[in-house]
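Troubleshooting entry. The earlier prediction with pyridoxal-5'-phosphate gave an output that would not parse, so I re-checked the input for stray whitespace and re-submitted. Clean input:
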Amino acid sequence: MVYFDNAATTPVPKAVADAMYEVLTAHFGNPSSQYPIGVEMKKAVEGWRAVIAGALGCPAERLYFTSCGTESDNWAIQAALWQNRHRGRHIITTAVEHSAVLEPCKLLAQQGYEVTYLKPGRDGNVTAEQVADALREDTALVSVMLVNNETGAIFPVEEAARAIRRSKAPALLHVDAVQAFGKLPFTVKKLGADLLTLSGHKLHAPKGVGALYVKKTTRLLPRTLGGGQERGLRSGTESVPLIGALGEAVRLLPPAGEALEHIQKLNSLLRQELAQLPGVVLHSPEDALPYVLNFSAGKVRGETMLHFLAQREVYVSSGSACGKAKPSHVLESMGLPKEQVQSALRVSFSRFSTEEDVGALVEGLKEGLAQLAVGS
Ligand code: PLP
């Protein structure tokens, strides 16, 4: 099998699955229990929290475990608006965020918030100037992703943070780093983020676990009320096996630069091969994070090519996994012609991807183009 849909989800390596199995079977204590098998688990959870916080460059107590990136995004937006509730009801985000940001913004607009959606250029990116121009004295939140899940475009988050600091806006900066964490080296401090989202299943942990970084000066409204877990802000017995798996997955991440070099090679190889195929148009910018490459292969519909490749056990996507079969809002807002939006494919690598995988994909694409382009 050739798996090139790592932006949708990633396989769980044996070492991570083994760590999780060990917790499930041998260490089932409740971290809130007073006796040793509970206390041990509380300590273990705090150990894994410290590992992840270390990778983000923040103190462990600044990190809250959640069930996924979507929950973290929703919680972050709610937190910023709560903190600035007496100062403003204006939100700035981009037209190309994940639906975990866009859908809450849609609901907030119905509740009287004003939302400015920054439109990307043809390169899929927005500029810090666009953020600066949109800032107002009543801007409560700026929510900008670090890496776009469909194109790999790297957003100018640090510059956006500086623009906020220079402005009179009380805005907090939320960064959706779901596609960046573990791939692009950064620290929350360097980015200037007040809130930052990550998700386990994009970095070789299982589905169902994520985390939210919250700067010390940012106040969180409790997500759930009950037994007071997660320092009273997200009650509910911790999912120790999933937290353990996330901690292990992060512990096993290779130095970001090392993996990036490998992925850059694969990306360049694929770009070279694609350049030989008729009618290929690249949609990812040159300076995108090389983990993602978005392109159109001729006039063949993305979905048709996806299924053709899947028959050969080569897995790519035709956009965001959450976008189902809808045309991509990301490519549409980049102003691509309808035909290119419909024919787009997204290839997303992981550190386990190989040159042979790229070869198999290219063979599949060639055959697909030869067979499917007939009559299109
Ligand atoms: N944000 C981005 C940029 C994503 O790519 C995704 C998932 O595709 C999410 C948020 C949602 O993460 P999760 O699937 O963990 O809810």
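This one parsed fine. DSSP finds 13 helices and twelve strands in the chain.
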